[in-house]
Prior knowledge:
The structure is a homodimer. By secondary structure, the first copy, chain A, is an alpha+beta fold. Helix content of chain A is 36%, strand content 23%. The interface between A and B is large, with 70 and 70 residues. Strand 5 of chain A pairs antiparallel with strand 5 (93-96) of chain B, so a sheet runs across the interface.
Amino acid sequence: MAQAQKITPRAKDYSEWYNDVVMQAELADYSPVRGCMVIRPHGYRIWELMQRALDDMFKATGHQNAYFPLFIPMSFLAKEAEHVEGFAKEVALVTHTRLKATGKAGAQALMPDPESALEEPLVVRPTSETIIYAMFAKWIQSYRDLPLLMNQWCNIVRWELRTRLFLRTTEFLWQEGHTAHATEAEAEAEARQMLGVYRTFQEDWMAMPVITGRKTDGEKFAGALRTYALEALMQDNKALQAGTSHNLGQNFAKAFNVQYQTAAGGLEYVWNTSWGVTTRMIGGLVMTHSDDNGLVCPPQLAPVQVVIVPIWKSEEEKNQVLGVGGKVKEELARAGVRVELDARDSLKPGAKYFEWEAKGVPLRHTRRNPGRVVSGSQGSTRSAFHPRRHQAAVSRVHEGRGWIRVRRLLWLSRVRGRDQAADGGNRAGAPRSRIPLG
Amino acid sequence: MAQAQKITPRAKDYSEWYNDVVMQAELADYSPVRGCMVIRPHGYRIWELMQRALDDMFKATGHQNAYFPLFIPMSFLAKEAEHVEGFAKEVALVTHTRLKATGKAGAQALMPDPESALEEPLVVRPTSETIIYAMFAKWIQSYRDLPLLMNQWCNIVRWELRTRLFLRTTEFLWQEGHTAHATEAEAEAEARQMLGVYRTFQEDWMAMPVITGRKTDGEKFAGALRTYALEALMQDNKALQAGTSHNLGQNFAKAFNVQYQTAAGGLEYVWNTSWGVTTRMIGGLVMTHSDDNGLVCPPQLAPVQVVIVPIWKSEEEKNQVLGVGGKVKEELARAGVRVELDARDSLKPGAKYFEWEAKGVPLRHTRRNPGRVVSGSQGSTRSAFHPRRHQAAVSRVHEGRGWIRVRRLLWLSRVRGRDQAADGGNRAGAPRSRIPLG
């Protein structure tokens, strides 16, 4: 009870509600480093499940993962004029490489050793176009090396003044795809293909309907020819940018001299694309589905899909009910279900219910009296957890897509309802950038 | 041919041989950032396969993944005296958060904006004990919160003067396990358990025999009570430290005030462990198995387990042989084998053989004349790739553990041979720290 009351209702304060849901579900926590968050196990598991699904889609479309340095020489950023302008005011700069004792006590005990100052400061990557295309220049010689299709899963730092858990943090996790192509048409097709991959993931896995569109020139990525974006509608009628895909043209190829020999023997600059989604998607997931009782999570992305909450009144009942619970857990786990048995004796069942509901577990199994359900054999362990309901649980979890269809319909009807309430064409809460695709 | 000749023989220059194998197999490349490497797709795939196997073992032993900030406030490092002493001379320090135009051209066009200087510099994590235990202090209240078993996959920066691809780089990838326990005995058991997990992985997956032992006080981790390590013997008779597991005692718990209420109502400091393995393992894999023709990779960790090299003399033969190749590839992929069909027409078969051998592909399938093997029907596509040999390939890949047993026996006999050649007890190339475990 106490737990559930800690969540501020949406109607009272939407922003507080969001923070409460994230904290109560133990998705993330504030860290002692300004603007940086800690992603706790329950939140990180969602990210792992997202990663697995997206990574499979990236590999199915021919991309390979690689890893590029965290640090970018300061001068690299300057090579593409719009790019440096876009990022100059939000970069973390490494300038020294040793600590020195000051002789003072406490927080003042150390200082950067002036003798360790770097000749050229290093930028902690705010995005990796510059360092990656410097490597592409080394690897690409001929049209036979194209297309080059890469992706990187990594951490990113952008010095943000106002931060919100998952939605905007100084450090965040993401993937960034980077590709090089022989023609503009191929790069354009790639940028749009990956936008489609993101849409498929966000709609089919996250059950988060999105609107895709092209950004205006004023809003496009710093250094891009064209930027496509996905925007999702949140419960406060505001749009959340959920991903971007850029046709970079030849801007970076020219800045980093990424050229290839054509089949005819000529020399041309390559055409690049880059595209990314971040841990912000977890914030989008929270705001799309959750309610005043806490996180609501699509079964495919739920860290725990089924929780078993056993209830006992005596030691004997406890042993019995935990014995059955353990077996049911094993059975479900074998069927590929992510399942937990909550055997804690420090919490009452009601407190456990509220905790697991706040954590967004799709299905809870419990039984007040382990014997009552069984016709004939009081106390039989076999039926104590309603095996048939567990079978149903397995099916419902595996039929997550059905759940998603219902959610999408609900959402779309809500969006349409708002359309009519607003002034016709100018939809309340619609994404700013909805220039139609193609 | 040209490719293979680029690998310096081990006997001539072991160090050059290692670099050549890494570069020729396209595992990694030098980056424009001093001491930082790029992990190329072929090398990163090995890391992904290592991660998957280890992560399953971590989860099976009850650990959950989480993510903590890249940055650590400078003052945090100072809280554990030995810890700061151990890392003070190799940390990257973030001191500014904005770039400023200087008005100059080229590499001098930018400088850190003096107005963006941080009040307290941030350390790019050289390891995460301090930031993680600061969070543990927030999450741990009672004995019921223990043990707390976490792991993090992330990047790490230690400013190294001399670097070698995979073996010692300024930035590297690793996992760091961090746990908190109620008693010293539990922490000690955890530290040793994880040492055992590493041994299992390195011997059963990497086929790299290791010797485990306890580090001397002079060599233990900065801030640890006891450090256990795994040492593997490389082909140059030198030991490579392949992983460490630390019983941290209550050193960090006291520095960060991580206390818990006991069942009896008292207040105690927790006992911590931390343990990690890094991308250095890829260097160990290279040096354990590879030869003068390039990378040799255990099938379980091979990014490509089978390569199909089709050969044709006419356009008709090409279509035929690629058609069959595609089907065989699909069949193998369905059987769970990582397989490539090398359809490039820009390289002769001999060049392809050398390239794939350098990349450590366990099995190659090829056929000079697609018709010759088929009794009766000249040019039949069905038999052109010897289906029976593919069946054998699937079995051999899936029987990788057999391959590993043979490798280990070969290795152990080689090590023993050296024992006898040397002065009895004092084994040539034996790890420095081989104080026996318990």
